Amino acid sequence: MRIKLLTGFFICAAVLSCGRGGAASNELKVGYIGYNDNDPYIKYLSDTMSQIAADKVLLLRHDAEGDQNKQNDQVQTLMVQGVAGIIVNLVNRSGGPIIAEMAKQRRIPVVFLNREPEESVINEWNQLYYVGSLDPDAGRMSVEVLTDYIKNNPSLDLNGDGIVQYVVLMGEPGHQATVLRTHAYADAFLESKSDGGLGGEELMRDSAMWQRNLAKEKMTQMLESLPNRIEAVLSNNDEMALGAIDALKEQGYFTEDGPFMPVVGSDGIPEAIDAIEEGTLLATMLNNPVDQDTDALAIILALARGLDPQADLSVPFSNASRTSASGRYVWVPYIKITRENYRGFIKR
Questions:
Q1: Which class for 164: exposed (0-12), middle (13-18), buried (19 or more C-beta within 10 A)?
Q2: 57 CB contacts (<8 Å, ≥6 apart)?
Q3: DSSP code of residue 57
Q4: CB distance 190 to 199 below 8 Å
Q5: How far is CA 211 from the centre of its chain?
Q6: Helices within the chain (DSSP H only)
Q7: For the segment 239-263, what is each residue's pLDDT rounded down to a tens digit?
Q8: Partners of 130 in beta bridges
């Protein structure tokens, strides 16, 4: 297992949104397809890739616009264009087998990024990789930050029962991140309680489909259904956390004389860091775009050179990366961004 410890982190100060991310002197072409640039985190991930790839390859970037069939067509087009490899942020996990089969037939390596296909897909061919983060960690870390904060601010336990009464804003139903992060909240509260800390009681959950405006509506409904009972909000992503904050602001929260409610998100988008600085968002779990993109590109470049990305120590993986036993899953750890450390993360 190849392991490197985290020694530092940066976020690019500028991003490129054009299709051509830049070119190295040998004009090596690499394809990149994001699932939907209308999603702020995915746009953040894609823009970061454009910046990282700018002086290394000719990046042929596409946006699948949330359409798996369109993404399949884009993969086929890139292969015809003679790319050395393709980095794919899947629209749906169901698209993995189709893309993997195309890659295997044409002998063009593919790195699936941030949305994990079924394990059987990665096992199909030794030139297929996955780079992402372990979603249960995001859920567990969210609860850790929340329970630590309420423990240090016991007045936020409104009924004084030592149990956090919370609501959950979920992403797309059935989405891997939705399922794993949400389950991890409950598991982390059980662990906390068994260790003598705060327990948790989920009062309500609802899907806001990763969207800020829909999350605002859902949060408003929750506040009306559970008056004076909600003590915290756990959100599967930052956009929905910001929507919850929008709803809470309309109810008088976060003003100088108003109440405070802890809200925790996930992804670490710049707007979330702004909200931490503002004092409205308690924390976010960084779904590290820089290290994920760095590792995905490093794998493609290594395979294009005929190297084994895991065995050859010259392959420039990010400082945070660690791999699975098979060597074809690369995991980038989540990072807690809180009021104590947010200044260490350059926002844009």
A1: buried
A2: 21, 22, 23, 24, 28, 29, 30, 84, 297, 301
A3: S
A4: yes
A5: 14
A6: 40-53, 68-80, 96-106, 119-122, 135-152, 176-194, 212-225, 238-250, 270-278, 289-304
A7: 999 999 999 999 999 998 899 999 9
A8: 112, 329
Concatenate the DSSP letters of all residues of 170-198 into one string.
E-STT-HHHHHHHHHHHHHHHHHHHTTS-
Cα distance between residue 145 and residue 36, in whole Å: 30
Return the sign of the alpha-carbon dihedral for residues 92, 94, 96, 101: negative
Taking only the tens place, the pLDDT of each residue in 126-154 is 999 999 999 999 999 999 999 999 999 99
Q: Which amino acid is at 326?
A: S
Question: Is 253 in contact with 259 (CB distance < 8 Å)?
Answer: yes
Calpha distance 160→224 (Å, rounded): 22
Q: Contact at 8 Å (CB) between 237 and 41?
A: yes
* Cα separation, 82 vs 95, whole angstroms: 21
- Please list the residues that pair with 111 across neighbouring strands: 87, 129
56 burial class (0-12, 13-18, 19+ CB within 10 angstroms)?
middle
The reported pTM is 0.88
From residue 240, alpha-carbon distances to 18, 207, 230 in Å are 28, 9, 17
Torsion sign (Cα): 204, 209, 210, 215? negative
Q: What is the mean pLDDT of residues 291-297?
A: 95
Sheet of 335-338: strand order equals 199-207, 163-170, 232-235, 263-267, 283-286, 335-338
